[in-house]
Structures are given as structure tokens and as C-alpha cells.
Write a structure and sequence with these properties.
Pfam families: Chitin_synth_2. The protein is mostly helical and about 200 residues long. It has 2 domains: about 100 residues, no CATH class; about 100 residues, no CATH class. Helices cover about 70% and strands about 0% of the residues.
Amino acid sequence: MPRILEEFTIAPKMIELFAEDMEMVVQLHEVYRRKKQKYRIVFVPDPICWTLVPETFSALSRQRRRWHRGLMQVLFGHLKMFLNPRYGGIGLFAMPYYFFFEMLGPIVELAGYILVPIALFLGLISLESFLLFVAAAFLFSAILSVGGVLLDERSYRPYESWREVSILILYALIENFSFRIVTTFFRVMGILDYLRRRGRW
């Protein structure tokens, strides 16, 4: 069995990571795949963990920017796994997904928030096209959010009543017009922080 925990603990680069949990999982995949050893990483939903929730916009901004810098650190730190069949589904599917959708996705999303209204204002697109775009974007995001809530409820039953589930679904819908837009902006700022080698907790 690789001495992965010891390697992880003493690696100097770990001190500067902003997503050490993701780095550990990716590193486990990388080590075991490289050594061609059988392994299994499972998700256990039972433990209850507590964390500090950002109470101000500045704290939320620092958190989301830090998380996105951490994502980029992990992805660029393991580029050899990217589209590499040697690493199986992790290299062929998981790494490209995180690169194109999670890392670059906020740029495309924020560009849409800005460019589509500008195009409407300049008359480059019709009002019908604008409304169709907004409806499609909202519907797609809502399906993902509500689907996640229902899947969690079906699998683990974490809520005591359907009233709680209904409230959570309502928040999932409202999120698309408020919280999501704000955090998308913060994630783009995280990309700029990474490129300018800025970053702090």
C-alpha cells in the first residue's frame, strides 16, 4: 500500500493549497492508478460536520475565490492525468469535466449575464430570443438544483417533513436569480487571483 498519507502530510506544496481535500482524493487516484494497484474510494454520507458559514459578502467572496483557486491548483497540478487513459474514468471524464465545466464554466456564465442583455439593448437579438435564453438557462439550472434536492431526499432522507423539502426547493429556485450570480462573479475573480498569483485565506 503506498505511503500516501505520509507523502501527503510532508509534501511542502500542501502548505500552500486551498483545496487540500480535493488534492488528497486526486492524489490517491493518481498514486494507485500509477502503481496499478486495486483500490476503492467511497462516499460516506452519515458523518455530520460543522463549518463556519460566511456572514458577510466579503467573507463569502474570499471563500469562493479561495475554493476556485484551489480547484485550479489541483487541476494544473495533475495535468498529466488529463485525458490520459492510464487513469481510467478519472483521467478521461472527471478531470476534463472539472476543467471545462467547473473551472471555465463561470467565465461563460458571467459572459452570458453581461453580453446577452447588451445584445438585447443594441437590438442584436429580439426580446423573444432574450426571454427564451433566460427561460432555458433558468430551467436547466433549476432541474439540476431541484433534482439534487430530490435525489438527496430519496437516498438519505435527511429532512423530517416534505415542508422542509419544499422550502429547500424554493430556495433552489430563488438561488438562480441571486446567490448563483454573485458566486459566479466571485469564482471569476478567483480565476484572476490565480493568474495574478494572488491569494489568501
